[in-house]
């Protein structure tokens, strides 16, 4: 209710554990709790019988509870014991900066002690670039290095992204050196906060997930670290990764998923303040437009604050240069504008984009607009994936045998022209259109072309692949492509056909196979992409940010089938 929000909205910036060498102060927002205790532990392993102390927390302003513990608590783990709705729950801190294994216990941390050498001088190497100057490359941490052909030692780890000098057996650069030679400006990393579908305690067992199942939004995922049991390690290694990429001229985009959580019932925010974080109907049923079991109630004041605080934290603490929002059509425009405004106060270079699909969610307050393509004008500065470009070039993603422009279909000339100008009907400016034909979702580009053109030769399919790349990398807007597209990455299934939804498929399907580059077909395709990127960087007329500039400076030669 409005009364609840007015009374219990907390505006401070000290939620969570605020550490100093002399003392740590803990503040938790729990307005519906009858009592809260703080548990301090020696380890971060859930169920371990190693309680150090239990401290009563005191009620404070706007529904918060507070406790202070003297001494240096760096490395001490903690949880909250909350009496709410007649029962007692033990929960992780929603504002945890790091955790023990599997994100069950938060850890007090001296964040500065986790900084790599030279961190104070670390900056975005492409801070002077606008959205349309970016060349964005989408990558899963594990995919890059896990295959033997990568030549990378830290397989599946954050640190694997910054190993230098790695090559295939024939001497072709892989990993970081490949990305540098390709010419990308921004590396888009699939979710790397703490997610729930991989058991960090059993990393000797092969496990895979894209990571779109958040557990702790402000904590790095432990399975990509060299030691998920000690909370400081994941923090150190993400910072090392970011600095290593920056030192090599590559900006870092973080894929974030604030629209839903792994499990609404066990999500710590909902445990502490039941169902506040998630949208429900009058019967208490979770809204499920995300198809993940729950939708985030971003329109509620403390959820909005949480999202704003979280994004700002990643930009401040980890020097993240961009954020890609999963299913941002489930987040309201007020929240997204607040995120951008807050981050841009101190990081004006940070870019923002996401999936603006329209979805039927149960918004719990009236007069809120969702951040969809149709509402692009309400969020200036935020860009959207262009399914318009994607589908006109290769055919609808919902019909994997349907042809698109590059595979021989007759398409609307006017629509093709609009896409090339970066201004499909929903995009006010080219800087709000992210042009792509492949990402982690759906079939890899060459697989999709193969499925839709059974009559074509392999050589012609490669030409179709390259035609799609030529469109994306010379059109107005921001170009984006999936790692490996530039050398015909494929995801074949053992039983035949191709995996179109490999979110939990094994490494045998998801791993990037660098030895493809030992073939002439793949190396020639790579050279073509490198040339396109060089061309784009060399010509400002390919990177216009506004509709006015595009209209004034570009003249279409033909509007066939207009």
Task: Please name the defining characteristics of this protein.
562 residues; alpha/beta; eight-stranded parallel β-barrel; five-stranded antiparallel sheet; 16% strand; globular
- Number of helical runs? 14
Helix content: 25-40%
**Uncertain spans:** none
Instruction: State the secondary-structure class.
Output: alpha/beta
Identify the strand order in the major beta sheet: 10-11-14-15-16-17-18-19
What does this structure look like?
With 562 residues, the chain is of the alpha/beta class. Helices cover 26% and strands 16% of the residues. It contains 14 helices and 19 strands. The chain has helices spanning 2-8, 141-145, 175-182, 231-247, 268-272, 301-318, 333-346, 387-394, 413-420, 445-452, 458-474, 507-510, 520-538, 547-553; strands at 16-19, 23-29, 35-41, 51-56, 58-59, 64-70, 77-84, 87-91, 106-107, 136-139, 186-189, 193-195, 214-220, 251-256, 322-325, 351-354, 382-385, 433-435, 478-482. The strands form four sheets. It has an eight-stranded parallel β-barrel. Strands 3, 4, 7, 8 and 9 form a five-stranded antiparallel β-sheet that branches. Strands 1-2-6-5 form a four-stranded antiparallel β-sheet, with no helix packed on it. A hairpin with a 2-residue loop joins strand 7 (77-84) and strand 8. Helix 6 runs parallel beside helix 7, helix 8 packs across helix 9 (413-420) and helix 10 crosses helix 11 (458-474). It is globular and about 70 Å long. The N and C termini lie far apart (52 Å). The relative contact order is 0.10. The model has no long low-confidence stretch (mean pLDDT 97).
């Amino acid at each position: 209710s409005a009364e609840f929000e007015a009374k219990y909205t907390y505006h401070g910036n000290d939620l969570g554990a605020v550490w100093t060498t002399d003392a740590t102060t803990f503040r938790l927002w729990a307005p519906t709790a009858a009592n809260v205790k703080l548990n301090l532990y020696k380890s971060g392993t859930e169920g371990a019988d190693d309680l150090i102390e239990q401290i009563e927390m005191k009620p404070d302003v706007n529904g918060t509870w507070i406790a202070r513990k003297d001494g240096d608590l760096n490395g001490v783990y903690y949880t909250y014991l909350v009496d709410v709705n007649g029962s007692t729950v033990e929960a992780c801190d929603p504002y945890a900066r790091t955790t023990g294994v599997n994100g069950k216990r938060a850890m007090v941390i001296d964040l500065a002690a986790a900084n790599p050498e030279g961190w104070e001088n670390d900056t975005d190497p492409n801070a002077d670039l606008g959205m349309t100057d970016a060349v964005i490359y989408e990558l899963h941490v594990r995919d890059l290095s896990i295959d033997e052909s990568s030549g990378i030692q830290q397989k599946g780890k954050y640190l694997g992204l910054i190993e230098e000098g790695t090559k295939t057996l024939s001497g072709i650069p892989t990993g970081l050196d490949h990305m540098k030679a390709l010419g990308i400006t921004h590396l888009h990393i699939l979710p790397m906060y703490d997610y729930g579908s991989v058991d960090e305690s059993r990393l000797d067992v092969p496990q895979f997930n894209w990571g779109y199942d958040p557990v702790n939004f402000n904590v790095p995922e432990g399975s990509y670290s060299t030691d998920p049991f000690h909370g400081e390690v994941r923090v150190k290694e993400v910072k090392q990764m970011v600095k290593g990429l920056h030192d090599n001229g590559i900006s870092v985009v973080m894929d974030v998923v604030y629209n839903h959580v792994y499990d609404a019932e066990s999500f710590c925010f909902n445990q502490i303040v039941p169902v506040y974080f998630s949208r429900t109907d009058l019967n208490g049923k979770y809204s499920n437009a995300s198809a993940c079991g729950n939708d985030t109630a971003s329109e509620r004041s403390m959820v909005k604050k949480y999202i704003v605080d979280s994004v700002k934290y990643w930009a401040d603490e980890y020097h993240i240069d961009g954020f890609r929002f999963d299913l941002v059509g489930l987040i309201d425009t007020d929240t997204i504008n607040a995120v951008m405004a807050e981050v841009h106060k101190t990081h004006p270079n940070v870019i923002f984009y996401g999936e603006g699909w329209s979805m039927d969610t149960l918004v719990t307050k009236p007069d809120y607009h969702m951040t969809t393509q149709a509402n692009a004008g309400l969020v200036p500065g935020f860009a959207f994936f262009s399914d318009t470009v994607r589908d006109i070039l290769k055919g609808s993603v919902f019909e994997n045998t349907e042809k698109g422009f590059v595979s021989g279909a007759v398409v609307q000339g006017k629509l093709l022209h609009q896409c090339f100008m970066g201004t499909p009907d929903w995009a006010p400016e080219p800087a709000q259109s992210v042009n792509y034909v492949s990402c982690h979702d759906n079939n890899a580009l060459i697989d999709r072309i193969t499925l839709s053109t059974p009559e074509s030769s392999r050589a012609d399919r490669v030409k179709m692949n390259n035609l799609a790349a030529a469109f994306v990398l010379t059109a107005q807007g921001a170009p984006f492509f999936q790692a490996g597209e530039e050398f015909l990455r494929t995801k074949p299934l053992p039983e035949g056909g191709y995996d179109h939804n490999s979110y939990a498929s094994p490494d045998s399907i998801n791993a990037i196979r660098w030895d493809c580059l030992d073939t002439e077909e793949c190396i020639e395709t790579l050279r073509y992409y490198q040339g396109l990127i060089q061309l784009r960087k060399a010509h400002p007329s390919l990177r216009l940010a506004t509709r006015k500039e595009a209209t004034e400076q570009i003249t279409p030669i033909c509007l066939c089938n207009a």
